[in-house]
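Everyone, describe these structure tokens:
***
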Amino acid sequence: MTGEFIAKAIVKKPGLLSQTTIDDILKIVVIERHKATGRIGKAFVRGFGLKQGAIGSTVAHDSHNIVIVGTNDADMFAAFQQIKKLKGGLVVINNGKLVAQLPLPVGGLLSAKSFEETAADLKNLKQKVKTLGGTHDSPFMILSFLCLSAIPKLKVTDLGLIDVEKFKITLYLLIELKTINNPGASRCQRLPTLRVTAFGKITQHGVPSALVIFYLGMLPSTPST
């Protein structure tokens, strides 16, 4: 389950927003893969920890579209191309090159390999994600649930960023008003901010036990409503 984080938007030019590894805000896309509709949902996510590269998967509950998270658009596109080549699966990409993969040719969900081979491939994938800065033991499991729009709070589908609690598609780019205090006067500045899907772990006796909803602190420029 996820929470919401309001972050300062990095606007490269009008209509073009960028991810930033410094604040662990990465771009996420969900590409519809069943009926060739061309729909691509786009949003931002915090919690993966990646410093480079991109990861992608066709295991994405419940619709199982293509979901990709990355630090840059080029590696995200390379991840899409590799998934297309495999006809479904899990991939890790860095600098445009394939780092690791797990082909899932049966509907993009099942492997044609033995249990032992599949487990070894998945273990290798997880290890490779950590070399790119990943901070979670099961990044592809987390990736798959970021699309599950039946549980709170912000999720991403091929239709876009979904506010599950309000049952509607929502904007990820907001315009907030920040009051600037000057001697003897005050004025307001319009600031673009992002609604970011955020997630984390709780621990019990130091051992990660579950993903939970949690809310990171709002920026001072962001209204509480």
